[in-house]
Amino acid sequence: QVQLVESGGGLVQAGGSLRLSCAASGRTINNYAMGWFRQAPGKEREFAAAITRNGGRTYYKDSVKGRFTISRDNAKNTMYLQMNSLKPEDTAVYYCAATNRVQYLSLTSDSTDYDYWGQGTQVTVSS
Questions:
Q1: Which of 60, 99, 103, 115 can bridge 65 by disulfide, Cβ–Cβ 3.0-4.6 Å?
Q2: What are 4-21's pLDDT values in tens digits?
Q3: Helix or strand or coil: residue 113?
């Protein structure tokens, strides 16, 4: 199994930036497609971004496209989410997730496709 731990969350003003990290242990992440999800207070968990095993393809929720960048460093067993131009509506707990149930060059925005999850990191954007 792979264990995931997020870090990098915090409080930031609107228009600011944060970089989230997702450190993996137990298994190399080369074998996993990965994604970021978020859950705002009183709302269901939603997809934010996903990346293929080799980092060659990415996919974003429309509302974060152009502002967020997902990336991974397989040598460091770590995935990242660079978040720029943050808005108050980006406030949420952010979770990283991993799956080996999709084809090698595929990715997925469906949370039910992911088997491994981190504990989450809080991102709060003040107006």
A1: 60
A2: 999 999 999 999 999 999
A3: helix
